[in-house]
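Fill-in record for adenosine deaminase.
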Amino acid sequence: MIGAKRLAGAALGALLLAGSAQAAQAAQKAAQKAAGSPEARTAARFEAVARNRAQLRLFLRAMPKGGDLHNHLVGAAYAEDFLAWADADGLCVTTGPLPAIAAGPCDAPGKVSAKDLGKTNPALYSRAINALSMRSYHPGADGALPSGHDQFFSTFARFGTVTDGNLPGLLAVARDQAAGDHVGYVETSVNPSAMYDLVNPVRNAPWDGDMAKALAALEPGIPAMTAKARQQFDAAEAEADRRQGCLAQKPRTGPCAVVLGYQAFAVRILPPSVVFAQLTAAFALARADPRFVGVNIVAPEDDPTSLADYALHMRMLQFLHARYPDVKLSLHAGELTLGLVPPRDLRFHIRQAVETAGARRIGHGVDIAYEDDAPALLARMARDKVAVEVNLTSNDVILGVKGGDHPLALYRQAGVPFVLSTDDEGVSRIDLTNEYLRAVTEQGLGYADLKAAARASLDYAFLPGPSLWAAPRTPVAACARSGPACDAFLAGSRKAAAQWRLERELEAFEAGPR
């Protein structure tokens, strides 16, 4: 009887909804049209190749991906780039078990010239690539460090000598890699050398905890520091444009069309007076120069100083955020796992980044399941739209967390927005396509999930200006259709312009071969 009533109710509902046989036919045709839409056809293409990694990579590489929001500029360049710059700059390569780029003289014991190293000493050149990245890393191999974590973070010191003075090259490399990977926007962490005009005077200063006094001492130097930083990036961007042939392009295409946004940062393993000065400089830069779109804090979160000072750093960020309320924060938090640190250090990092510091995005967030009252924290992140930056290869290499152990599914189930990003693509020797591929093969994401992640990468980017979207996938009134009103709106919003570009690229991608 219940089944008969249910069927009768369904029939009545269908009759009321359709109204007539003609309406029912129209609804059927609409459903068929939706099934044959460009998006549906593209999703079918995706399903056809999802189990063939080579074909899947071809599909995903061609797919527009929007932005890469978790990116470190010096870690994005490949070891081959560093060795080429070392060659051009007259630097050396050390010959020990873990070769590094070093200053001269290159005829000193344990050093050779980087000049034409790939030709003159290909074995050392190959070992240098391994030492400057995660290539061929195997724990226990000759010269290898005991863990992927240690190998990863130690690479930065080995190539650090050559990064000074090569900002234009780093910018050009970042744009070139993004363009080849169909990424239109890169939000990358980088500090201008001018920052250290503010930081160096306090390197040996004791920390008494008085943030207001520390800020007052730093404030007189901020205008000169921000002006010098602006000049430095003006010159670096102009030189990158010259190298990549962008100056004559109207409109810009290829690498020249890639938009870069910068996050200034503090290094959390340094003394408190230095961290506070770096954070002050970072906030000031974000206020003074629209290219600096946000602030971050970096370095291994499991370092003893990082752990001991974590709560202090969050209070510093809270203090400065109150004075610079328009500056956005994306914070490395929860880049930890059980065994790397004691359980007590897994219980509060993400929460304090969100609740104390006011982070709008969380970088990594791997230890979320170990946080105190994790369900409530997840609910807050979902409600407040605090996105998590997911770096699958980095989490695997550094923490050994991958596959079913990764919390991406937990975030998705809770409704927390997420983006896929690279972290340090040069050190890890990957690209964003690789992270999309891992998201499919290891995390079970489908085409609709990837498309949503690409859009989210611009929705949650710190690009200035209002969003293109008045509501989910409903554009603002000015851009309900193309025309002068929309052109004017896009010209006034870097965010909306990037979102509009992604939509056009997705349309072209989905209109491709069936």
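KEY FINDING: The chain is about 55% helix and 10% strand.
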